[in-house]
Design brief:
With about 500 residues, the chain is of the alpha+beta class. Among the domains are: about 120 residues, Alpha-Beta Complex (Dipeptide-binding Protein, domain 1); about 220 residues, Dipeptide-binding Protein, domain 3 (Roll), CATH 3.10.105. Helices cover about 30% and strands about 25% of the residues. Strands 11, 12, 13, 14, 15, 16, 17 and 18 form an eight-stranded mixed beta sheet that branches. A four-stranded mixed beta sheet has the order 1-10-9-8, with helices on one face. The protein has a four-stranded antiparallel beta sheet with strand order 4-5-7-6, covered by helices on one side. A hairpin with a 2-residue loop joins strand 6 and strand 7. Helix 15 packs antiparallel against helix 16.
Length: about 500
C-alpha cells in the first residue's frame, strides 16, 4: 500500500498538463470529416498528414513521409517513415494512405476535403512504405492535399458508415497525443503517446476545457486556470494589467483568417446586385474596427489573404456612401413603405462577432434597412443554420491556407451539402478561371489569374468582406521552449516543457 501511494504521488508530482479551452464540443474527431474549429484543433494533435508546412508556412516538409518528390509533372512519390505506430500499437504503412484516399473519394461520406483529390488518377502502393500518386493533369495544390490526416485501415476497413462511426469520438491516430477522455461540455483529455515516431512529448497531457462563453474563457485565463489562450483587443487594451503580463507572454500577428457577412444568394432579395452593393456601401468597416479592435485588425478587401501572391492590392475597401446606398435600394424597389428586412445569424463562440452584427444593424438602419439578429451556440449554428443553408445572411469567418484554394469556396461545384460554398455563389466565368488555374504550377501565372478572380468576386459582393483580426495569443511563462514564428507558436509543441 505504501509503495502504491508513493507511486501515485510521484506520477502526479512529475506529470505535466497543458490546460486549454475550446468553445464547443468537437463534432467529429476524424481529420477527413472535421469541419468545425474544435474538431480540427483537437484532431491535429491526434493525427498526422504525409507532409506539413514548416514553421514559417513557406516550405512544405515531411511528416509521416520522410521523403517526397515529383517523378514528373503528374506523379508524386512518398517514402514513408518505417517506425510509425498507431495509438493501439499497430504499424503504420502505405495501406493506411491508400485507405484514407479511398475513404475520401467514397460517395458514402460528405467531406469538403474530398474536392482536393478530384484530380487524382490513381494511388498505388509500391511497397510497404512507398506510395505513388498519379494525377490526371498537373495540379497546383497536389502536395498540400496530402497534409490531410491519415486514418487507420486496420480499424476502419469494415466500417459501414464512417459518418456516424464510433471512431469519430474514439479516434486512433499516429499523433503525438492520444485521446484518453471525452466528456462533452466538460473536459477532453489527450495523453502523450509514448511511441510517437518523433519522440515522446515533454508535456504529459493536454486538457481541453469546453467553455462556450468567451468571457468565462477569459476569466479562466486571467486566473491562470488556462495556460494558453487567445484574447480580444478590448481585453488586451482595457481588461488586463501588470499582474497578467507578469504571468503571460503575448504574441501578436495578423491572423490567417477573415470575417465576412455572407448573403444567401439562393434568395430572391439577394440575387439583385444593386441590393448587395447598397448594403456594402452602407457599412463603415473602419468604424467596426475602431470600436471593436483598437487597431488590432485591418479591413478585409477580398477573398485572399494579404500575405499571399493572390492578394490584389489595387482593390480597395468600399467607402461608406449613405446617399448612393439609398439610391440603389430605391432602384431595387425598397423604400420607407417597403423596407428591406433580413436577419444576420452568427454564433456566440466569438466574443466579437455578435457586437459586429449589432454595429452593422445600426449602420444599415441609416439607409432604412431593418436587420434582425440571431446569435446561437456554435454547434446549433452550424447544424441548424449554416450547413442546411437556412439563413438570410451569416456572419462567419474563414481560416486560410498559405496557398489559396478558390475552388473550395467559390466554385459552383461546392454549392452542395458538406461544401464550403455556403452562400450558393455561382459565376460561370469564375468557375472557368478556377478550372484553368488548377493546372497552372507557375506561381507568377497563378498570381495573375488569382488577382483577376479577387477583383471579379469583390465586384459582385457575394460577401461583405469585413475585417482581418490580429491573432493575440497569450502563453503562460511556465511553458518553456516556445518559438514564435509566422505560423504561430504551435509548430514545435512536442518540445515544450512545463
Amino acid at each position: 500500500m505504501y509503495y502504491l501511494l508513493l507511486l501515485f504521488l510521484s506520477i502526479n508530482l512529475f506529470s505535466s498538463t497543458l490546460h486549454l479551452a475550446t468553445s464547443a464540443n468537437p463534432a467529429r474527431l476524424n481529420p477527413i470529416l472535421a469541419t468545425d474549429s474544435s474538431s480540427s484543433e483537437i484532431s491535429g494533435f491526434i493525427f498526422n498528414g504525409l507532409i506539413k508546412y514548416d514553421k514559417d508556412s513557406a516550405t512544405i516538409v515531411g511528416d509521416l513521409a520522410k521523403e517526397f518528390y515529383y517523378e514528373d509533372d503528374t506523379t508524386l512519390i512518398f517514402k514513408l517513415h518505417k517506425n510509425v505506430k498507431w495509438h493501439d500499437g499497430e504499424k503504420f504503412s502505405a495501406k493506411d494512405v491508400l485507405f484514407t484516399y479511398n475513404a475520401l473519394i467514397s460517395p458514402k461520406i460528405s467531406s469538403p476535403y474530398s474536392s482536393g483529390f478530384r484530380f487524382v488518377k490513381s494511388v498505388e502502393i509500391m511497397d510497404e512504405f512507398t506510395i505513388k500518386v498519379k494525377y490526371k493533369k498537373a495540379y497546383f495544390k497536389a502536395l498540400e492535399t496530402w497534409m490531410m490526416g491519415i486514418i487507420p485501415e486496420h480499424v476502419l476497413k469494415d466500417e459501414e458508415n464512417l459518418m456516424n462511426s464510433s471512431f469519430n469520438t474514439n479516434p486512433i491516430g499516429t499523433g503525438a497525443y492520444k485521446l484518453t477522455q471525452l466528456e462533452h461540455s466538460k473536459n477532453i483529455i489527450l495523453s502523450a503517446f509514448d511511441d510517437y515516431f518523433e519522440g515522446r512529448t515533454k508535456i504529459d497531457k493536454i486538457s481541453f476545457h469546453v467553455i462556450a462563453d468567451p468571457m468565462t474563457r477569459f476569466l479562466m485565463l486571467k486566473s491562470s486556470a488556462l495556460d494558453i489562450g487567445s484574447i480580444e483587443p478590448m481585453q488586451y487594451e482595457r481588461q488586463i494589467g501588470d499582474d497578467f503580463f507578469s504571468k503571460f507572454n503575448i504574441y501578436e500577428q495578423i491572423s490567417r483568417s477573415y470575417t465576412y457577412l455572407g448573403f444567401n444568394l439562393r434568395l430572391e432579395k439577394f440575387k439583385n446586385p444593386k441590393v448587395r452593393e447598397a448594403l456594402s456601401l452602407a457599412i463603415d468597416r473602419q468604424e467596426i474596427i475602431d470600436i471593436l479592435f483598437f487597431n488590432h485588425a485591418e479591413i478585409c478587401t477580398g477573398p485572399f489573404h494579404p500575405t499571399t501572391i493572390a492578394f490584389n492590392k489595387d482593390v480597395k475597401a468600399p467607402k461608406q456612401d449613405i446617399k448612393k446606398a439609398k439610391e440603389l435600394l430605391a432602384k431595387a424597389g425598397y423604400d420607407e413603405s417597403n423596407p428591406l428586412i433580413f436577419e444576420i445569424a452568427t454564433s456566440n463562440s466569438s466574443a466579437i462577432r455578435p457586437y459586429a452584427a449589432q454595429i452593422m444593424q445600426h449602420q444599415l438602419k441609416k439607409i432604412g434597412v431593418v436587420v434582425n439578429l440571431r446569435v446561437m451556440e456554435w454547434q446549433a449554428f452550424l447544424n441548424m443554420v449554416v450547413f442546411p443553408h437556412k439563413f438570410d445572411t451569416i456572419l462567419l469567418g474563414w481560416g486560410l491556407s498559405p496557398t489559396p484554394d478558390p475552388y473550395m469556396f467559390w466554385h459552383s461545384d461546392n454549392d452542395k451539402k458538406g461544401g464550403f460554398n455556403l452562400i450558393g455563389y455561382n459565376n460561370p466565368k469564375i468557375d472557368r478561371m478556377i478550372e484553368e488555374s488548377q493546372s497552372i504550377v507557375d506561381k507568377e501565372k497563378l498570381a495573375i489569374i488569382w488577382k483577376k478572380m479577387f477583383k471579379l468576386i469583390t465586384d459582385e459582393n457575394p460577401y461583405l468582406f469585413l475585417y482581418i483580426p490580429n491573432s493575440i495569443t497569450t502563453v503562460s511563462k511556465d511553458i518553456k521552449n516556445i518559438e514564435p514564428s509566422p505560423s504561430g507558436v504551435w509548430h514545435n509543441y512536442i518540445k515544450w516543457e512545463k
